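Can you give me the bound-state structure? Components:
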Amino acid sequence: MQNAKDFKFEIIVKDKKAKIRVGKITTAHGIIETPAFVPVGTKGTVKGLTPQDLREAEAQILFGNTYHLHLRPGEDIVKKFGGLAKFMSWNGPTITDSGGFQVFSLGQLKMKLTEEGEGTQVNVVNIKDEGVIFRSHIDGSKHLFTPEISIEIQKKLGADLILAFDECVPHPSTHEYTREAMERTHKWALRSLTVSQRKPFYHPWRQALYGIIQGGVYQDLREKSAKFISNLDFDGIAIGGVSVGESKLEMRQAIDWSYPFLPENKPRHLLGIGEIDDIFDVIEGGIDSFDCVIPTRFGRYGIVFVGPPEGNIKNRFRLDVNKTNCARDKNPISKECLCYVCANFTRAYIHHLFRAQELLAYRLASYHNIFFINNLVKKIRESILEDKFQRFKRAWLE
Amino acid sequence: MQNAKDFKFEIIVKDKKAKIRVGKITTAHGIIETPAFVPVGTKGTVKGLTPQDLREAEAQILFGNTYHLHLRPGEDIVKKFGGLAKFMSWNGPTITDSGGFQVFSLGQLKMKLTEEGEGTQVNVVNIKDEGVIFRSHIDGSKHLFTPEISIEIQKKLGADLILAFDECVPHPSTHEYTREAMERTHKWALRSLTVSQRKPFYHPWRQALYGIIQGGVYQDLREKSAKFISNLDFDGIAIGGVSVGESKLEMRQAIDWSYPFLPENKPRHLLGIGEIDDIFDVIEGGIDSFDCVIPTRFGRYGIVFVGPPEGNIKNRFRLDVNKTNCARDKNPISKECLCYVCANFTRAYIHHLFRAQELLAYRLASYHNIFFINNLVKKIRESILEDKFQRFKRAWLE
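Here's the bound-state model for the whole set.
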């Protein structure tokens, strides 16, 4: 049986006028101070970085993708090695998603490839109320995900926080289709809950289950979904389907429409968001944690984060270190940044590494970006505790 | 003017019967205890590793390639940033080669590509007594290397140890061509010496110049070259053209044929050698330092070093972590290894990273391999100091 003490959420400070809060999630593998950014380690590794780097870069928890880990190395191997954290040698909490997002997004990708004449498979994703049949992006093999299968896989992966199986609709989708998918997601939420509480358990620690609010860009659906999911016995609430939207407004709306229905005492996770200029909005909207591949993906492209005054809302706090004006720049990526990369390397050197397509380039830029975002979120936490959030926000965004 | 005190070679212990010795090279940027392995950081980075990793992995000195650094980022940028070590944030000694090896080997590569119909350039490498005209492997642009230019570039790069410009013949080459190339190398050695002592100097520390013995697989030429180079006023002696040979025997012969002519009081570097089963031979042949890309190149392929009893002369101390039998292996790469990778990761995890083509795979395997080889060479140093080299060698090779 799982140990019930292995999950707890406490609110440390709540702003009386605003939705903002500082909290603490306790898991069997450690504590997450919220608001928290969650770096994504899709296949059991945050690309290019070791667990030691991630600790140095102030990561508190890592995100693994069930779809990818199921296909490779397979949940049975991860289970055999003591769960995801131990498998990857990360001495801290982990969260896995349900696989839903990847099943649908990688399925679509396959369809696009097909349109370009790259194959003959169509309808790679076959959605029924029972679950989803999809093909592996690795070898084309057929797989079935149902709420029961997703939770079973996640039980074997053994993350501290796990997610209910959901359907994530593409953008744009009609109101009708979005509603259908939402209703399916709600049925799947109930089934995910049921199976999550049922034996067998493969690891001794408790795995807290988050329900997922969907509903696309439609206010009535978001509200309906928020109400439905919030009324179930989940440990936490996630908001999904936001990163596929196109505008910041849509993201903010999805949070705001859900907010009135969110239970105060449960942690809230926003899926797939984490650009620098989103973070203030997200936290201001009452979100406790959020994950995003952007810091590492941008890092691999040579886009690195810089703070004010160089970084601002116009340049979206991004510096492209590939650009020729970095070739002779003796400055670190960011003068204010206290990370290992900024303490040791010039922009010119990192520019050179990108031009030469050296492995170290991707690593250094990813390390900096993860540190930068974790550090920013830490400062935001401190600003909330000191009742200075708005002032801090203005210093960054105005 | 350069500071003459910035280079010194001392012999600590010399075996009375054998050629083996333990020594110490002092440079402006630190001390190298010999015998020493020198990891290769071709473009100003040992692929995938930070200077901090390299310190942890017990690297004492790094090797940079003049050809690559000349093409990108260019020696003027490196000079502006305080020389190669500072540019790459390596707080220790560096050595650069003359560019000769790359000019010839990458030139040949280009010709092969041409034969396969990839272009129309032939005779990419144009060798005259004056120097060599070659085309960049990056953009096809024309470049000229002469002894004067090579040394000028190396002066700007500012490594502590630099090499005379030489011609490295392909394998196999006729006696006649090898002799011609050797004679050219000797003329270039004289010109390299002259220009190395001439102003301007771009950095305040002394750059010790090594002459290079060539002569291919021919005893008379190796002896002639060893005699010629040893009689000149070089700070150290390098043996070149060995890694292009095909057999271990040829490598050992090149060392042994040169040995009688090598001055006792100058450090000896062997270019391009460093497989585990070569190391004992090389050190036994009286070599003080040697560089090789093998630990990092193999690392990127998933070939990792293991010691006895698993590693032996038959499997050449190599383990292929890509192989399926690693997929569920809970052991570290090497149980005896004290490196960060072996302390934290299983073979199964590293196998997974290679299968998933994750950046971290290349990094972890390279880190282990560099640590492994540095640690082995350190143990060999200790075994010589304790007069137990032969016993230690038998434990590894028998």
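A couple of observations. Chain A touches chain B through 38 residues (CB under 8 Å). The CA atoms of residues 115 and 122 of chain A lie 9 Å apart.
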